[in-house]
Amino acid sequence: MAQYVLEFALFIVLLLAVTLFMPSLTNYLSLRRLPLNGAQHGSYPNRLMAFTSNAEQLYREGYAKFKHTVYRVTTVEGSRVVIPTKYLEELRHLPDSTINNIKSLFQIFEGKYTGLNENAPLINHVVRTDLTRALARLSPRLCEEVDRCIKAELPPCDDWTPVVISPIILRIVAILSGNLFLGPELCRSDEYLHMSINYTVDLFAAVAALKRYPKILRPLAQYFTPELSSIQDHKRRANAFLLPVIRRRRAMTREGMAMPDDMLQWMINKADSFNVKDDAELAYCQLSLSLAAIHTTSITATHIIYDLAAHPAILHDLRHEIHSVLQATNGAMSSQALFQMKLLDSVMRESQRLNPTNMARFTRYVAKPVTLQDGTGLPAGYFIESPHMAICRDPLIYPEPDTFNPHRFLHLRQLSHTHTTPPTAAAAAEHKHQFVSATPDNLSFGYGRHACPGRFFASHELKLILAHLILAYDIRLPADANGVRYRNVVRSAVVVPDVGKAVLLRRVVYE
What we know:
- By secondary structure, the chain is an alpha+beta fold.
- The chain has helices at residues 2-32, 44-65, 88-91, 101-108, 111-114, 121-153, 165-181, 190-210, 218-221, 227-254, 263-270, 279-310, 314-328, 335-340, 342-354, 388-392, 408-415, 423-432, 455-472, and strands at residues 71-75, 78-82, 99-100, 161-164, 361-366, 370-371, 377-378, 383-386, 473-476, 489-491, 494-496, 502-507.
- The strands form four sheets. The chain has a five-stranded mixed β-sheet. Strands 4-12-9 form a three-stranded antiparallel β-sheet.
- The longest helix is centred in the first third of the chain and has 33 residues, at 121-153.
- The model has no long low-confidence stretch (mean pLDDT 91).
């Protein structure tokens, strides 16, 4: 009898093991059937080392060999499934229960240990609706803030002056973003600037520290990662700084006073609708906004300034365009005025094309196995991505792809308007080539319904800063750069500018 009980127990254990591990095994076998890019490097550790040391080469090789087919690559996040652009339209219509972008961000930023908010519907809603709609209304306020920042943060530069521009731009972006996030009274506060700038720096440091450990050891490694304590310190400081502000605003509402016009207030107004009951969560939303907005915008601005410094001849045309637009708007740098600065938009888009912040985009977690219309299978339990950087350097899409052409996207927009093109089609084609466009050929802001909702604010902010800077200063590289644009700093698949480099500025004198 005891033998039968033991055999039955072993059968149950075996059945449970098969039930639990068979899906994972099936998914793994499905993954293994996909061609492996980088197989020439041999073992998994060697492939990982190849990715870490030269991810750009791997993505370029993969794009050349598998441009129209799915393949896999070994990355610092494990095996990734790389998909060609032809599948993006089909994939973007799949529900979040099948492919999920939030889970991919949660893994990339080690959200389990860093405390990253995995579900932020309030932030997404307010950015997508209130923030975007407010840009036209609040543009004069933002324009005043940029003018104040340029004068306060940059040296006089009466003659050619070397300026390490990146940290200055970071501070200007933080102040300008804070004006819209918290209002003009708080955006220049030292406490706000400290937490909004340094939270992202410390979070990335914590993520990098955790990723030095194998995934299986990270639950233990978190207790030996001092960088994580800095994140908690930022949250405590955010509470200390913002909770009194939130309480004061709630009191103002009860007293029927006029309320501030900023994101914090819009979030307070809608918190109940999104079941946000804790004011500390509203405070944390401000840190999340700084993570999403401030550093990415300042990185993009720095890239653009480096490109302008390497191609100073374009400044004359840009300055002429800005003056012409402002003359037509009586000097008002409104949303409509910024939209009319199409050469500036083209310069921004071209710089973004050549300097993607990440070599792969449209990252999604595959929660359920996917069979695409042509029969291609995507295994569950893995992440998919599209080779953004390689697409941006495809000569069939962008002739002379390695050349900075400031007029590239302006010409493409102009070509959209021909005598034979219907007006609706022309407008759609012109929109495709704008800085804010999210298309299969431009994944800088993602694609589909999860494309970055803050891209319109980012564009508005960048144009305000760049237009003021271009009107005020000539820009060029120092002599020892020999006219060659500064090389980017590449960490695996992440691309950032060399933030320690100086450009030469000289104030423009108008007669």
